């Protein structure tokens, strides 16, 4: 199976499994796991924050960040196709009793003016804007890294008007590698940063929320409240430490594979490939009305290629640690065969 469903399907490498097996462990709930502490320190350094907290998932990290900065009646600004708005089961409303106001953008990127236009007057009739969420890279926007100037403009506008800014950086290292910029530069100026370990970095589970030290006690309390406290988490943290040392620079290979896949698919008249200025590890495409997306999906799967279906005619292919250039060539051969039949 050539599994292009997501970069979440990656499996730990043998070297990562060895690091996990040999990890020094302690009771993480009491702050006594040395491997977890080392992971948190390293992640904070890489993300340009004072400290970080290890968590089971990026969804939990985003939920905790929202609760840090928002409460009942508050409003969050997010891209209309952002992860916190569409893929986290309404967590903002459940956990913080806050609402999310969407910013129209099919790319997932918006500018300072979009933030300024959505600021409300201080009136008892309206929710209170409190938080802006930036997703980098933008998943539904095609794996697109944010232009640094746009991001800086959003940070400036938000902070000038008293809003906090959270970076949903689940795939932040993809953006860092694609832009050729240090990850701490991309995390600079944010009030909190989420990093997912189980996507492009290839870990079996885990995420980090990086933040200022003044929030440490509240983050720990919310982690406990949401059931995120663990015991000997060093086994999982060791995978994260290994990934931060060995799996960041190799993301460039995922990007090259995605580019090769996109170029090959562009030669097929049956598909419409979405183009992005700087491709990372995602290829989105659509199936025109005259063809059957159901048949395409079924026949690809029957021949060993699995994709993610986003909407009725929109598909996503994601390259990752378990996909090499040979897999891309094989996948393109299957695409050509199936497209010729449909």
Would you kindly provide a written description of the structure presented here, covering whatever features stand out?
The structure is a single chain. The chain is an alpha/beta fold. It has 2 domains: 13-246, Aspartate Aminotransferase, domain 2 (3-Layer(aba) Sandwich); 250-341, Aspartate Aminotransferase, domain 1. The chain has 14 helices and 13 strands. The protein has helices at 14-21, 34-47, 58-69, 83-86, 91-96, 112-117, 148-160, 172-179, 183-187, 216-225, 234-246, 251-265, 293-302, 325-341, and strands at 2-3, 51-55, 74-79, 99-103, 128-135, 164-168, 192-196, 207-211, 272-273, 282-286, 305-306, 308-309, 314-318. The strands form 3 sheets. It has a 7-stranded mixed beta sheet, sandwiched between helices. It has a 4-stranded antiparallel beta sheet with strand order 9-10-13-12. The mean pLDDT is 96.
The count of DSSP E runs of length 2 or more, i.e. the number of strands, is 13
Question: Taking Cα atoms only, what radius of gyration do you get, to the nearest Å?
Answer: 20 Å
Percentage of β-strand residues: 15-25%
Average pLDDT metric? 96
Strand order across the largest sheet: 2-8-7-6-5-3-4
Molecular shape: globular
Q: Identify the CATH homologous superfamily of the largest domain.
A: Type I PLP-dependent aspartate aminotransferase-like (Major domain)
Number of domains: 2
Oligomer: single chain
Named CATH architecture of the largest domain:
3-Layer(aba) Sandwich
| N/C terminus separation | 21 Å
Number of helices: 14
Please name the CATH topology of the largest domain. Aspartate Aminotransferase, domain 2
Largest sheet: 7 strands, mixed
- By helix and strand content, what is the structural category? alpha/beta
Helix-residue proportion: 40-55%
Order of helices and strands: EHHEHEHHEHEHEHHEEHHHEEHEEEH
**Low-pLDDT residue spans:** none
């Amino acid at each position: 199976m050539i599994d292009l469903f997501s970069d979440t399907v990656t499996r730990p490498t043998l070297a990562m499994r060895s690091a996990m097996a040999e990890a020094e462990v302690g009771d993480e709930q009491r702050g006594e796991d040395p491997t977890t502490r080392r992971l948190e320190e390293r992640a904070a350094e890489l993300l340009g924050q004072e400290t970080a907290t290890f968590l089971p998932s990026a969804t939990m990290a985003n939920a905790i960040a929202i609760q840090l900065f928002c409460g009942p009646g508050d409003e969050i600004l997010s891209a209309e196709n952002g992860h916190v708005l569409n893929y986290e089961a309404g967590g903002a409303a459940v956990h913080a009793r806050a609402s999310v106001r969407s910013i129209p953008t099919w790319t997932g990127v918006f500018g300072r003016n979009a933030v300024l236009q959505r600021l409300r007057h201080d009136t008892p009739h309206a929710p209170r804007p409190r938080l802006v969420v930036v997703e980098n890279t933008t998943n539904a926007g095609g794996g697109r890294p944010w232009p640094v100037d746009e991001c800086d403009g959003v940070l400036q506008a938000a902070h000038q008007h008293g809003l906090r800014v959270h970076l949903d950086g689940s795939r932040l290292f993809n953006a860092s590698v694609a832009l050729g910029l240090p990850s701490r530069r991309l995390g600079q100026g944010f009030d909190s940063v989420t990093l997912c370990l189980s996507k492009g970095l290839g870990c079996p589970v885990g995420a980090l929320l990086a933040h200022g030290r003044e929030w440490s006690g509240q983050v720990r309390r919310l982690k406990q409240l949401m059931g995120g406290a663990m015991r000997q988490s060093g086994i999982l943290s060791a995978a994260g430490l290994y990934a931060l040392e060995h799996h960041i620079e190799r993301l460039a290979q995922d990007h090259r594979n995605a580019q090769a896949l996109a170029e090959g698919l562009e030669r097929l008249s049956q598909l419409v490939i979405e183009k992005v200025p700087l491709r990372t590890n995602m290829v989105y495409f659509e199936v025109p009305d005259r063809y059957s997306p159901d048949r395409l999906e079924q026949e690809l799967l029957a021949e060993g290629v699995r994709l993610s279906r986003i909407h009725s005619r929109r598909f996503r292919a994601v390259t990752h640690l378990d996909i090499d250039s040979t897999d891309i060539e094989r996948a393109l051969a299957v695409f050509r065969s199936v497209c010729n039949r449909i």
